């Protein structure tokens, strides 16, 4: 039984490692596309000395799909210095090497895109549909199924969570909800939050007042269902009890009381320091 359990853990770890590897390949494909498209923009400007003007294919003429331009574009592919914005690819290991591996595996597709499909979104055409390393945003898994909440609200997990495998060819599609949201779709408020607003395709939750216990129905001290220990229920809602006003609080020699929200803390007065439960003269201070 123990061997079976260990083997099971090994399989889970191996599957997770495979998912990570496939996830990286999708991001490497994104990097490939970013550098290829940067090359197309660079060659267009260089050929016409047109600054940052976005030249349409008809204005580029025969050069738009010439072999010369393809070679010039490929010179910068998979190179970090080809693009300015690198934040999206931060932390990827062997970025240029792994990207070049994809180029070697699929150079025929790059040529096909360049000569026949430049008007098409390259990420969608190459990474999602042809190589099938990625899914469109809001989709996950081998079949690129829709993430929870995406069809209803247009955002994954109703905009309040992350869909496992979003944009990748792996994952469970389960929502990991943001703080304050719960449920399969992240469409409900957590116990210590309340519905600030809700429609058919959206919800906004707000955290309850800090003195609330057992939830709340509105913001502020008056919205509490009941009050936590250390708080009094009054006409103004849950109000902090000032424990320091009680004579028995922090009554040891050279001790003072510091009131906190819902609690208090005993500290030594200036010139004294804590030694166990007593405050003794701080001769070093």
TrEMBL record:
Q: List the disulfide bonds.
A: 177-186
UniProt keyword Ligase, yes or no: no
Task: Enumerate the PROSITE patterns for this protein.
Answer: ASX_HYDROXYL (PS00010), EGF_1 (PS00022), EGF_3 (PS50026), EGF_CA (PS01187), EGF_LAM_1 (PS01248)
Q: Does the keyword Zinc apply?
A: no
Protein's UniProt name: EGF-like domain-containing protein
**What InterPro entries does the record point to?**
DUF3456 (IPR021852), EGF (IPR000742), EGF-like_Ca-bd_dom (IPR001881), EGF-type_Asp/Asn_hydroxyl_site (IPR000152), EGF_Ca-bd_CS (IPR018097), Furin_repeat (IPR006212), LE_dom (IPR002049), NOTCH1_EGF-like (IPR049883)
Q: What is an example of a Pfam family matching this protein?
A: DUF3456
GO molecular function list: calcium ion binding
SMART domains from the UniProt entry: EGF, EGF_CA, FU
Q: Where is the EGF-like domain?
A: 148-187, 240-278
Q: Would you indicate the residue range of the signal peptide?
A: 1-16
Which keywords does the record carry?
Calcium, Disulfide bond, EGF-like domain, Repeat, Signal
Instruction: Give the similarity note.
Output: Belongs to the canopy family.
């Amino acid at each position: 039984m123990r061997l079976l359990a260990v083997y099971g853990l090994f399989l889970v770890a191996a599957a997770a490692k495979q998912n990570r590897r496939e996830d990286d390949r999708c991001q490497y494909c994104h990097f490939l596309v970013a550098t290829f498209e940067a090359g197309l923009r660079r060659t267009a400007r260089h050929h016409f000395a047109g600054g940052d003007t976005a030249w349409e294919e008809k204005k580029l003429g025969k050069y738009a799909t010439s072999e010369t331009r393809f070679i010039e574009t490929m010179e910068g592919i998979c190179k970090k210095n080809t693009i300015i914005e690198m934040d999206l690819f931060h932390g990827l290991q062997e970025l240029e090497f792994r990207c070049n591996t994809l180029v070697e595996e699929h150079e025929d597709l790059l040529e096909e895109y360049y000569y026949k499909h430049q008007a098409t979104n390259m990420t969608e055409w190459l990474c999602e549909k042809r190589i099938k390393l990625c899914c469109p945003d809001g989709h996950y898994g081998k079949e690129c199924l829709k993430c929870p909440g995406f069809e209803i609200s247009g955002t994954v997990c109703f905009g309040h969570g992350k869909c496992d495998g979003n944009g990748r060819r792996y994952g469970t599609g389960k929502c990991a909800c943001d703080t304050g949201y719960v449920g399969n779709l992240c469409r409900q408020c957590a116990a210590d939050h309340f519905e600030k607003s809700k429609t058919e395709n959206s919800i906004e939750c707000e955290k309850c007042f800090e003195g609330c216990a057992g939830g709340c129905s509105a913001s502020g001290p008056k919205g509490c269902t009941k009050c936590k220990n250390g708080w009094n229920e009054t006409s103004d809602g849950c109000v902090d009890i000032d424990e320091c006003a009680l004579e028995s609080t922090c009554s040891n020699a050279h001790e003072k009381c510091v009131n906190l929200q819902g609690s208090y803390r005993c500290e030594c007065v200036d010139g004294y320091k804590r030694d166990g439960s007593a405050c003794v003269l701080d001769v070093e201070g």
